[in-house]
Amino acid sequence: MANRVGIALGSNLGNRLTHLQVARDMLLKLMPENDANYTQAPVYQSEPVNCPPESPDFFNTVLEIDYIGTPYQLLEYTQGIEFHLGRGIVYQENAPRIIDVDILYFGNETIKDTILNVPHPEMTSRRFVLQPLADIRPQLILPGDKATIAEHLHHLDSDEPPLSLVQSDW
After folding, report:
1. Is there a contact between 146 and 114 (Cβ–Cβ < 8 Å)?
2. Which of 128, 127, 129, 109 is nearest to 119 (CA)?
3. Phi, psi at residue 144, to the nearest 5°?
4. Sign of dihedral through CA atoms 161, 165, 166, 170?
5. Would you give the distance in Å from CA 92 to the centre of its chain?
6. Where along the chain do its domains lie?
7. Among all residues, which ones are annotated catalytic?
8. Residue 61 φ then ψ, to 5°
9. For 162-165, which contacts have Cβ atoms below 8 Å and span 24 or more sequence positions?
10. pLDDT for residue 89
11. Residue 159: Cβ within 10 Å count
């Protein structure tokens, strides 16, 4: 049986929209062929958060897909997408990047270890994740949580400026 999996995509180098599209298309190849469905949020532009000075603005979005496999298999695949698109080893925390592919949630699973944390531990404190996720799953309640994504967004205590809509259909 497939799990519903939320994945955040971000890019702030090169042709940001193309990078998001290529990553999305690679992720869609993971879905089971019969009755698979996915949902994609609009693409937003956001100012970098906790990034080095002079970092370019990000394009961010969220996808939700059907996935059959383990969370660790998905992690390996998402890291492969980053490598395929040219993201090398990052030596500086939050450095500009061609693509960032993060697993936000994996069905009802909760995992906390050295290489994988789901639900993503910082997602409910980041506007650039909450806004696109609220566009596609406002009533989602993450495992171990009590508030919906829409409620997290409404009560977000963040210095992040509002996001700018880049493109609804991409």
Report:
1. no
2. 109
3. 80, 5
4. positive
5. 20
6. 3-167
7. 87, 97, 100, 102
8. -160, 175
9. 162/127, 163/44, 163/45, 163/46, 163/60, 163/127, 163/128, 163/131, 164/44, 164/45, 164/46, 165/42, 165/43, 165/44, 165/45
10. 62
11. 7
CATH for 3-167?
A: 3.30.70.560
For the chain, how many residues are written?
170
Average pLDDT, 10 consecutive residues per value, the chain (170 residues): 94 95 94 82 91 88 95 95 80 74 96 95 94 98 96 92 94
SS (H, E, C) the chain: CCEEEEEEEEECCCCHHHHHHHHHHHHHCCCCCCCCCEEECCEEEECCCCCCCCCCCEEEEEEEEEECCCHHHHHHHHHHHHHHCCCCCCCCCCCCCCCEEEEEEECCCCEECCCCEECCCCHHHCHHHHHHHHHHCCCCECCCCCCEHHHHHHCCCCCCCCCEEEECCC
